[in-house]
Write a structure and sequence with these properties.
The protein is mostly helical. The chain has two domains: 130 residues, Helix Hairpins (Orthogonal Bundle); 61 residues. It is 89% helix and 0% strand. It is built from four helices and no strands. Helix 1 packs antiparallel against helix 2. The longest helix is centred in the middle third of the chain and has 107 residues. About 9% of the residues have low confidence.
Length: 209
């Protein structure tokens, strides 16, 4: 944006400067043409005056005397003025050409800046798109990870509950192990005695035992 504003300001200065130079060239051209015309007419009048014969008629106008050397010198100075104006006009043409060259170089440099800026902007936009895709992928992966974590937490909670249940069962078994072991022993002895009775052993012997 700043480069565009600077280029616009430079172009406005160029337009004004080139208009001034061309105006100067135009004015100088008209002045040179007018001076050339003036001195050409003056020279023609001098030549006509020199060639016109003197009239012998009574009352005829007397031709003006020839110009003095100083007057010819002054008239001849007109060529110096024209040369000076022509030199100024040439300088103005040179300045105009320099202004045009400078403007072309400035415009070319501005176009290169715009092109570089557009390329950089395109690259930045592409980078943003790539980063957006990576962000979306990372977000999706995070969502999956969060879901997996939730499932794992639920499984851990279930395992913890199961472990607590097993722990209570184990505590019960450990606490009443001796009692249950004794009851189991008595139960086995009763079974053995029942087997003995069924196998024909005397009831008295059973009682003695």
């Amino acid at each position: 944006k700043r480069a565009g504003e600077d280029r616009k300001a430079e172009n406005l200065v160029f337009q004004q400067s080139i208009a001034d130079q061309r105006g100067t060239i135009n004015v100088l051209g008209k002045a040179i043409d007018r001076l050339n015309q003036f001195y050409a007419e003056s020279l023609a009048q001098v030549k006509v005056g020199q060639k016109q014969p003197a009239s012998n008629e009574p009352g005829a106008a007397v031709a003006p005397p020839p110009q003095k050397p100083d007057e010819f010198k002054k008239s001849g100075g007109g060529g110096g003025v024209i040369q000076m104006l022509e030199k100024i006009r040439q300088d103005a043409h040179a300045d105009e050409a320099e202004l045009l060259a400078t403007e072309q170089n400035s415009q070319k440099a501005y176009e290169e800046i715009v092109q570089d800026s557009n390329e950089a902007l395109t690259a930045d936009e592409a980078a943003i798109v790539d980063k957006s895709k990576l962000m979306e992928e990372a977000t999706a992966e995070k969502s999956e990870a969060d879901a997996s974590l939730l499932v794992n937490e639920q499984e851990l909670s279930t395992l913890d509950e199961t472990s607590s249940s097993y722990h209570l069962d184990c505590d019960f078994v450990v606490k009443y192990f001796d009692t249950r072991q004794q009851a189991r022993t008595e139960e086995l002895e009763a079974i053995e005695q029942a087997k003995a009775i069924l196998s024909g052993a005397k009831f008295e012997e059973f009682l003695q035992n």
